[in-house]
């Protein structure tokens, strides 16, 4: 079994891991500002633009579970390097693409790289850091994930203003290559001491099920939740995942150990992270539209104005780690979710007369709360994982967080569209579909009404996000147990074996 290194280089290795996750982070948002440019440059229609976005999301969500398990079997460092190479190579393909189909293919390949990087970066942390240091490492990784969100629009807006559309993919290449070199020299190799066989059936079922569910969720806001295709995709996906769970429970060497959910700290730490992701993705879905369509900022300006959210996250993440070690885990997690809910409730009070100072304030409060909650929640999860199963266990948590985020965007997108249409009243069909279109039509009265209706829709979304965060805080306060921070993964797995 791999041992935790005491080499001081582990902190430099952490920089390599943060770079790896940062690569995924800003690529997630950089594409959003480039879609209008890609539509013109590649002569891409709406369906093709949607697939440029969705190809990544579907592959990424579908492969998280098997990639975590493969890292445990074949080596996490090795797989991390492969993921970075795939990400850089796919970005290079996108740079030289001359049609939308090639960009879609490149984005799907990036999704493979992202599916490797996301669970493996976190799975390496328990190998490199002792339990009393692990929280600091998780806080740094959380900050790296968060920092990528505003960097996407900021960097993308600058590149599109000064260079050609392919430059948004060029930026991935040096970051991924620097991370690759750093990982090669600084990150220790680790894998399961007794590797499991490759569970091909489990991999196929989990991938097909997750892709089907996420596809249905993505299509729901546009087609409607009762649409035949949407219902078929979601029901089929859930059925496949249920079969997957049944097979995994009976398998001698399952791809993922579902007994982990009997561990309250793993289960409720994962639940807290999933609910926080639902709320955070909801905020990130609605806010850029408000900043762009209602306040009139361009993509670059939107990215800059997201910085208070990330600033709060960067302050809250390391503080959550410290508070978790000084008190009990449930305290910073529940408190963070409540603070995040407070920020969202303040955001729900935004109106057309609110200045950006008010918006920046509630964004900072929201980010601080989410950061305060996420670090100890993830520390609770990683502390329960046997080192042999760090990859597959982390993949479970990240998969649920990804699904939570996707559901947040889909459900809250449907809510915001419904509230916007209801509050706008009689208006041209195009204006009822999009506040940006309503503003662009040139009718001042219509534009003012559309902005007001969208602010009402944003308030409804933020109220729901706040409610989700409050529910999460209550559940965590009641059910998340607290143990000594230094309890090792080996102690956890011994207890797991006793309760199995």
Short overview:
By secondary structure, this protein is mostly helical. It has helices at residues 9-30, 35-41, 46-74, 76-95, 100-128, 131-162, 167-170, 172-186, 200-223, 228-250, 264-294, 299-305, 307-326, 330-348, 356-383, 390-424, 429-433, 435-440, 444-479, 489-499.
- The number of distinct helices, counting runs of at least 4 residues, comes to 20
Structural class: mainly alpha
Number of domains: 3
Overall mean pLDDT: 82
The helical percent reads: over 70%
CATH superfamily of the largest domain: MFS general substrate transporter like domains
CATH topology of the largest domain: Growth Hormone, Chain: A
Percentage beta strand: under 5%
Distance between the termini: 22 Å
The coarse silhouette is globular
Name the poorly predicted regions: 1-5, 484-500
